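Sequence in, structure out.
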Amino acid sequence: CDTDTNSCLPLSQQGAEGVLSRPDLTFTWFTMNPADPLDANLDPDQDGNWDCTGAGCVYEPYTNFQEFYAVTDSDFSSPNGVRLSGLIYDGQVVLEWWQFRAATLNFDETGSSAVNYLKMDQSFSNDIRYAYIVDDKDTNFLSLDAGDDEVHLAGNWTDAWDIYYEGSPFSAPVRGVGEHEFGWYLLDHDNDHIAEGTDPTNWDTDGDWMVDWFEVHDDEEDGVRGDSSPIRYDSRQTG
């Protein structure tokens, strides 16, 4: 896989008719061993960025570590990088993973945040910060067909597991009675209504045809986290 290979790109042009399809991918072997800290620096799904501003194109990895926090800042590309960055949370230099998570998600002293960009559930009717993963089954980026969309995760729906208000599965879950987001287990492995970042095994976590690195970086650029999201399927309207 190199910069001359269409399958390395987020979209792959197929034939003279100009069909923009998802890239052709092959399987790769990788491990996530809790006893091996080097796993954090791997990028098995190759969902990083191609920097083509110079004479050639250089690949910038979006590592497993970055995926967990959904960050692309090069200063935060590894645990050592974070520790050396001088980042401060709650008056202390960030040295532990939970401090970094609290700092990036902008937690206050109560553990809540108005700009938690990894929040799973929809908190109110016009809340845009919630997870939504779709398999749209489309084969051409420029041709949208919502008729066969398959929703895998929806923070504005309630999962059947431990549902309390059984008559309202298509409304957001109520945390106070122990409800969960539809398909919550795909991203929230510790049941705290916060996604464990983007999926390190999938270059496009939410299924909206945009590579994870791009969506995270785009979200970081405007300084308002969560207004666009790598864990929320966005519109593919092109005009």
